[in-house]
Automatic annotation (TrEMBL):
GN (gene name): glnE
Gene Ontology biological process terms from the UniProt entry: regulation of glutamine family amino acid metabolic process
Name this polypeptide is given: Glutamate-ammonia-ligase adenylyltransferase
Catalytic class of the enzyme: transferase
Domain PII-uridylyltransferase/Glutamine-synthetase adenylyltransferase, first and last residues per copy: 340-480, 860-980
Keyword annotations from UniProtKB, A to Z: ATP-binding, Ligase, Magnesium, Multifunctional enzyme, Nucleotide-binding, Nucleotidyltransferase, Transferase
GO molecular function, one term: ligase activity
This protein's record includes keyword Protein biosynthesis: no
Length: 991
């Protein structure tokens, strides 16, 4: 091997040729003699194409076919024309072979320019006419002329600096070329069957990608044929003649000849599919779509475009079927039908192909197309800007109209361009129809280089593809399964438009009491051309329907306006409502059902983020909430601002607890525990701040303080209106006197109480210390010894009873545990209660029933103090605990329900009695919370006002019109509970 061969081979390897020995042989072939020096202009140009080896080999064949003289000027000087030719030869072996057979088409590559659709039609009609086709048959002439134009499209595609940026032009040109070929085929049909042509009018309607102006290089062309009899010809005879013409059009395009084939003409999308007649009249199409068509057929009609044949007939068809397209989403189960169809497509992909599918697989072209089409069909009923056949144009319109987030639309646009560009390169390499990503490294390298991806191109191609697949799938799931779509589709088009002239009438029909006020809110939210207003115009018709299902739709709409005005400037609020799971419906329920939640949202709008997604909303643990509070407090230097930050977290977490309760994703027990944990966390946060203030003022902390939860807080049974009943206990630090420690503890406790009771935007937390020894006259905090001494010497029976629910909630854990150990001997006393102590407790309970019940209150309806209510159940259970917990450790719990269940298990209550007490207690707790959520303020009795009762019933999950029934239900439960209480608490049985 000579020095030149070694040098050439090395240069070829460095330049990106794979089979350098073969490439060197072609480079030194006589056809390229004098033109192919290493590093020279020609070889350098070849090295830059997608497949340099293929380009070099095909170029030698082309020069051999044409002759050196005819190509010397083109190949020896760097030019745009030469670059186009070399890139075509390096991208498509099939079209390279065509150029070798038809070298006269080199000019179509070198001089390629964009063509109008009408120019393409004229060119192909000229090619198939008798004067233009010469010795060729009309079918061969059409194929040759078609490929000449195809070469021009390919030349512009592969020579573009960024093929992905111009892929929409490429796809549109391919669709125009297919339409021109169909027009030429119609001309051939008329020439071949002149008698049929005289009896019928025929129009060819492009469907699918051809109809959308976004065709591939190799694809079936989906069509529908429309025919009408010529004037004076009977319809049956005319349709028979039109069918002859249509069959000839299909043969002209699909038959295999010496020049190959164009593509299959597929009329399977016609009414009744392959079983239906090939040609129908416009009227026959209309009858079919009115009576028989399935959902997928209307989706297919979205792309229908007349491209060939009788233009007037084609336009008549388009006008006749257009209303069916934009009414399709009103069909029953439309959205779920489209979703099911997409799922079926995926299920039918052979398993071996799923990961390689560019078109049908997850994250592929179909995900983009189905998402866009579904949104078009649902929202295009009322928004004509969405009525485009083209995927990328429709996607841009959806983004402009606010139906798709701009960033999501940009991601889908980029992915679609990439996938279509890859699909093109997979197809035109051998001019074969395929939608599978190649597996061989050589093919991956060719495609990556053709798309100008960074070296190594094969690896870059795979990485970019996988990233686009993930993004497309994620956005597809977000858009395609968006719950709002089904809700919008269920609206009548006139209801979805929000036209002011019809709005008042609709508001009245929906149950709004102030139609004029509702209209003002709508106009304020949707005025103008901003993106926010556009999204609101999509949301509001559905939101109004949800509001109308509630007791107070007017208040729901007003609240929606206020919240939207607070959050409308954010990037996430409207996007969340439009895109994320059940967020919009959840917000509608919240705004129309709960003034408590509305108030929280108005004060802490960011809490609306909790609405997002479909996840179950559950309260967070004490540890998680406290960690969030402490992180927020840490960012504040001023202790007062630190407390403000902690209270803001409390508002957000209150919203979470209330939301979970309202939408029934958290149980009553989970809500009570969550509220209790939240109250514990805010008390601990206040203690942290109080100690911080004390240290700032005094230099060091001489005492440790812990808080003990009492009542419902101690039992982890807090409701939304519950106070924090607490005791304080302290322990001196080393070398600190009891007096100094007590003084410091008092100051810290006072500071905690002040911090928690300070005015603020959040619902107040009553910090009640009246259960401490000696009540309001006693010290705010005592030491362990102080509590033990008091309990031993002075505590009355009711004070022992109060300790049943004592549980440490804040401060040092070991100090809280010391307190528990100190009071356990008194609450779980050996021998239980004496007869005198039982009488004392019974007497106190009876006095409370007579004195503490508010004047005028119905004792049957009062949740807490009424007959069979919360107090009856709790006192009954606590009396059992005081009597028997010393012998039965399962009764040693601060939880009412746990103790109740233990009493049943121990036989201290019958199963029936336990159920009666539990149902009354749980129902009273639920109703008290429901009224609090509805009214935004506490209430102690079953509502008697019709609206309040109905609202409470809805929150509790009862159906419309159940307000009075819900109240009667509670009264029955309370009556049974009272019977048990009188028998077990006041009765003569041994307890």
């Amino acid at each position: 091997m000579g020095a030149r061969s070694v040098s050439l081979t090395g240069w070829l390897a460095r330049a990106g040729f794979e089979d350098t020995a073969t490439a060197a042989r072609f480079a030194t072939a006589a056809e390229l003699e004098g033109w192919s020096a290493p590093g020279g202009s020609l070889l350098t140009g070849i090295s830059q194409v997608a497949d340099p080896d293929l380009a070099l080999k095909t170029l030698v064949r082309l020069v051999a076919a044409v002759g050196r003289d005819r190509l010397e000027d083109l190949l020896t000087a760097q030019s745009l024309g030469r670059d186009r030719l070399l890139r075509v030869l390096g991208e498509s072996a099939a079209l390279g072979d065509h150029l070798v057979r038809h070298p006269e088409h080199i000019s179509a590559v070198v001089d390629a320019v964009p063509m109008e659709a009408s120019e393409r039609v004229r060119d192909l009609l000229q090619a198939v006419c008798p004067q233009g086709r010469g010795d060729l048959s009309s079918q061969d002439a059409l194929r040759v002329a078609y490929r000449r134009q195809l070469l021009g499209i390919l030349a512009l595609d592969v020579s573009a600096p960024n093929p992905q940026a111009t892929v929409h032009h490429t796809a549109a040109a391919l669709a125009d070329l297919a339409g021109a070929a169909l027009e030429a085929a119609v001309a051939v049909a008329h020439e071949t069957h002149p008698q049929a042509g005289s009896k019928a009018r025929l129009a060819v309607i492009a469907m699918g990608k051809c109809g959308g102006g976004e065709l591939n290089y190799i694809s079936d062309v989906d069509v529908i044929f429309v025919g009408e009899p010529a004037e004076g010809v009977p319809e049956e005879e005319g349709i028979e003649a039109a069918t002859v013409l249509a069959a000839e059009v299909m043969r002209t395009c699909s038959a295999h000849t010496g020049e190959g084939t164009l593509w299959q003409v597929d009329p399977a999308l016609r009414p009744e599919g392959k079983q239906g007649p090939l040609v129908r009249t416009v009227a026959s199409h209309v009858r079919y779509y009115k009576r028989w068509a399935k959902t997928w057929e209307f989706q297919a009609l979205l792309k229908a475009r007349a491209v060939a044949g009788d233009a007037e007939l084609g336009q008549a068809y388009e006008e006749a079927i257009r209303p069916f397209v934009w009414q399709a989403a009103s069909r029953e189960n439309f959205v779920t039908d489209v979703q099911a169809m997409r799922a079926r497509v995926e299920r039918h992909i052979p398993p071996a192909e799923v990961d390689r599918q560019l078109k049908l697989g997850p994250g592929g072209l179909r995900d983009v197309e189905f998402s866009v089409q579904l949104l078009q069909l649902v929202h295009g009923r009322t928004d004509e800007s969405l009525r485009s056949r083209n995927t990328l144009e429709a996607l841009a319109a959806l983004a402009a109209g606010g139906y798709v987030a701009r960033e999501d639309a940009a991601a889908l646009d980029a992915a679609y361009r990439f996938l279509r560009s890859v699909e093109h390169r997979v197809q035109f390499a051998k001019m074969k129809r395929t939608h599978l990503m190649p597996q061989g490294p050589h093919d991956l390298q060719r495609i990556g280089r053709g798309l100008r991806l960074a070296a190594p191109a094969a690896e870059s191609l795979t990485a970019v593809w996988q990233e686009h697949k993930r993004t497309v799938r994620q956005i597809h799931k977000l858009l395609f399964y968006r719950p709002l779509l089904s809700a919008v589709a269920r609206l009548r088009p006139e209801d979805a438009r929000l036209r002011p002239e019809a709005a008042k009438e609709r508001f009245a029909a929906l149950g709004f009491s102030d139609s004029a006020g509702a209209l003002r809110h709508i106009e304020a939210l949707t005025a103008g051309v901003s993106r926010t207003a556009a999204i609101q115009r999509t949301l509001l018709p559905v939101m109004l329907g949800w509001f109308a299902e509630e007791v107070d739709p007017d208040n729901g709409l007003l609240a929606f306006r206020r919240i939207s005005e607070s959050l409308g400037h954010t990037t996430w609020y409207l996007r969340m409502l439009r895109d994320e799971g059940k967020a919009a419906e959840r917000l509608a329920r919240v705004l129309a059902r709960s003034r408590f939640l509305v108030s929280l949202l108005e004060q802490t709008p960011d809490a609306a983020r909790i609405l997002s997604g479909d996840a179950v909303v559950l309260p967070r643990s004490r540890e998680a909430v406290l960690a969030t509070m402490r992180a927020a407090m840490k960012r504040q230097d001023d202790p007062a601002e630190a407390m403000v930050a902690a209270r803001k977290v409390r508002r957000s977490e209150l919203f979470r607890c209330a939301l979970g309760d309202l939408i029934d994703t958290s149980s009553t027990e989970e809500t009570m525990r969550g509220l209790s944990d939240l109250n514990e966390a805010i008390v601990q946060a206040a203690l942290d701040v109080a100690e911080r203030i004390y240290i700032a003022e005094h230099g060091q902390l001489p005492v440790q303080v812990a808080f003990i939860g009492m009542g419902r807080l101690g039992g982890r049974e807090c409701g939304f209106a519950s106070d924090a009943d607490v005791l304080a206990v302290h322990r001196p630090c080393q070398e600190v006197s009891d007096e100094d420690a007590a003084a410091a503890a008092k100051e810290i406790v006072q500071q905690v109480r002040s911090l928690l009771s300070a005015p603020g935007p959040d619902p107040s937390l009553g910090f009640d210390m009246d259960l401490r020894p000696e009540g309001k006259t006693g010290p705010l905090s005592r030491s362990i010894a102080g509590y033990s001494s008091y309990m031993q010497r002075w505590a009355q029976a009711w004070e022992r009873q109060a300790m049943v629910r004592a549980r440490p909630i804040a401060g040092p854990e070991d100090l809280g545990e010391e307190f528990v150990q100190a009071v356990d001997p008194y609450r779980w006393a050996e021998g239980g209660l004496t007869d005198a102590q039982v009488r004392e407790i019974r007497k106190l309970k009876a006095r409370m029933e007579g004195e503490r019940l508010p004047r005028g209150a119905d004792p049957r309806r009062h949740f807490k103090l009424g007959r069979g209510g919360l107090s009856d159940v709790e006192w009954t259970v606590q009396l059992i605990q005081l009597q028997h917990a010393n012998q039965h450790p399962t009764l040693r719990t601060t939880s009412t329900l746990e103790a109740l269940h233990a009493a049943v298990d121990l036989g201290l209550l019958t199963q029936i009695e336990g159920v009666a007490l539990e149902e009354a207690w749980v129902t009273a707790s639920q109703m008290r919370d429901a009224v609090m959520l509805w009214r935004g303020r506490s209430a102690d009795s079953v509502p008697e006002h019709v609206v309040d009762a109905e609202a409470m019933a809805r929150i509790l999950g009862w159906g419309p019109g159940s307000g009075s029934e819900t109240g009667e239900h509670y009264l029955r439960l309370a009556r049974h509970s009272r019977e048990v209480m009188e028998r077990r608490f006041y009765g003569q049985e041994t307890i």
